[in-house]
Design brief:
Layout: H1 8-57, H2 63-73, E1 78-83, E2 106-110, H3 130-136, H4 144-149, E3 154-161, E4 164-170, H5 182-221, H6 235-281, H7 287-313, E5 320-323, H8 324-337, E6 342-345, E7 351-354, H9 356-374, E8 377-383, E9 387-394, H10 428-438, E10 442-447, E11 453-460
Parallel strand pairs: 6-8
Antiparallel strand pairs: 1-4, 2-3, 3-4, 5-7, 8-9, 9-11, 10-11
Helix pairs in contact: 1-5, 5-6, 6-7, 7-10, 8-9, 9-10
Length: 461
């Protein structure tokens, strides 16, 4: 089973949301990188500023006051401490004139890339002393996570007295810390929910004409008479709906013309058949007269059956919600009263939309055929997720496998497997098939083992 949605509306929603999420993620990363650089530069500027202030203030204080000031000036990212030796053992730059009183001895160090543009000249050949610096300094204020996972990016040491040095170190700020706050995450979640609601509403509006067109197509397949579907939606959907309306009109016109032609031919044949029958009545009795009368009677039966077929094709009966179990039981009871052995297996009531009169005719035809050719009939009703199934079985000889589809064609008869004296002309199953197809259903034939035939009707729910 595929996890990818199969409905076009779901696919559009998924596609749009994916594009929005991807755009949001990319923009967040880009903005986050720029923001991080700005934040990092601000910390560097602050680092320079505090070094400048401490450079002027520390020499004027005693040792106790110095420690208090350094503790106050230190943060979880910027750290100042006093030691008897510098943490930097190589002179790699000098302070710019931004310092009012530059120390006599100053060691500085940075990690690439260098953002120390205002107060420090950077040397790209400096070694990475980050771990040594962190171990050598005392950290009055520690952000444990930053201290553990980060490396020192800038450091400086300058001499206060002969045996005392002020050491300074700067850690990088947390990446994207200004973006991924609780407020930002809450804002993004709310925006995401709003986007989902808006996209769902728009997609539902775009695909609603498709759903309506699909419903019309199903109803048309069931043989319902429909008014033209009004064009709506996008230009492409409007063109599709117009094409559907034109197709529906042409098919209706073709079906009506064919039905009227068959009805006219069958009706017009009645007059010459009746005229010939009357003339034969005035002829002297003989064997040829009896044969001709029998032939005319068979022709008249064919005409009447053909007219029945035409009426089925031109049926305008409306669909109704019907209890199929009650309908089948009623048909079976009528035939049992006529002496036909019919068994019913209708375990529960199942409601479906159908043309009750037409469906009664189809089921009656199948039950009569089952009794006529198979001695007895069994009818059962089942329900699945997508359709309703009606099964009619008999105990007859069945139909050759290669001719199962042929018997559904008009005027086709089986001389060997079916009784040729039954009076049928080969339209009973054709009429039944047309009725079922007008319901949007399907009729199939299956041979049973060791003998018998099963006719299955599947009607959409």
């Amino acid at each position: 089973m595929s996890l990818f949605p199969r409905k076009i509306a779901s696919q559009l929603i998924l596609l749009i949301l994916f594009a929005l999420v991807a755009a949001q993620f990319i923009s967040t990363v880009v903005i986050g990188q720029r923001q991080f650089k700005k934040i990092n530069q601000n910390f560097i500027n602050e680092f320079e500023y505090r070094l400048n202030q401490l450079n002027q203030l520390i020499p004027t204080l005693d040792n106790q006051q110095r420690q208090l000031v350094l503790n106050a000036a230190s943060t979880g990212i910027i750290n100042f401490s006093l030691a008897n030796k510098p943490i930097i053992n190589k002179t790699v730059g000098k302070w710019q004139p931004i310092f009012q009183h530059a120390p006599k001895t100053l060691y500085v160090w940075h990690q690439e890339p260098c953002y120390f543009h205002a107060g420090l000249l950077c040397d790209p050949d400096v070694l990475d002393f980050s771990d040594n610096i962190k171990k050598s300094m005392s950290w009055p204020v520690i952000n444990e996570e930053i201290f553990t996972n980060s490396k020192v990016t800038h450091a400086a040491s300058f001499q206060i007295t002969d045996n005392q040095w002020l050491n300074a170190a700067l850690l990088p700020p947390p990446r994207l810390s200004a973006l991924w706050t609780n407020r930002t995450i809450t804002f993004l979640v709310i925006c995401g929910l709003i986007m989902i609601a808006v996209v769902t509403a728009i997609t539902h509006h775009i695909t609603s004409p498709l759903r309506l067109l699909s419903e019309y197509a199903h109803r048309f397949g069931r043989g319902e008479s429909l008014p033209p579907l009004p064009p709506q939606g996008t230009i492409e959907l409007q063109e599709t709906i117009k094409a559907f309306n034109e197709m529906y009109t042409r098919i209706q016109r073709f079906t009506n013309d064919r039905t009227q032609l068959l009805a006219a031919l069958s009706h017009d044949l009645r007059t010459p058949i009746t005229s010939l029958a009357l003339r034969l009545e005035f002829l002297p009795d003989c064997e040829d007269k009896d044969r001709m009368l029998l032939t005319l009677k068979e022709m008249q039966h064919m005409v009447e059956t053909t007219l029945t077929h035409v009426r089925v094709l031109a049926d305008t009966e409306q669909f109704q919600s019907v209890d199929l179990a009650s309908l089948i039981s009623s048909v079976a009871t009528d035939l049992v009263d006529l002496g036909m052995p019919i068994q019913t297996h209708l375990n529960k009531s199942i409601t479906a939309k159908c043309k009750p009169i037409a469906l009664r005719r189809a089921i009656r035809n199948l039950l009569e055929n089952a009794v006529r050719y198979g001695q007895q009939a069994q009818v059962a009703l089942f329900e699945t997720e997508h359709y309703v199934k009606i099964s009619v079985r008999d105990q007859g000889p069945g139909i050759p496998q290669e001719k199962l589809n042929e018997v559904l064609k008009p005027f086709f008869r089986l001389e060997s497997s079916r009784n040729s004296n039954s009076g049928g002309i080969g339209l009973g199953l054709t009429i039944t098939k047309d009725i079922i197809q007008n319901h949007g259903g399907q009729l199939t034939l299956n041979n049973l083992s060791p003998r018998g035939l099963e006719v299955i009707i599947k009607l959409p729910k």
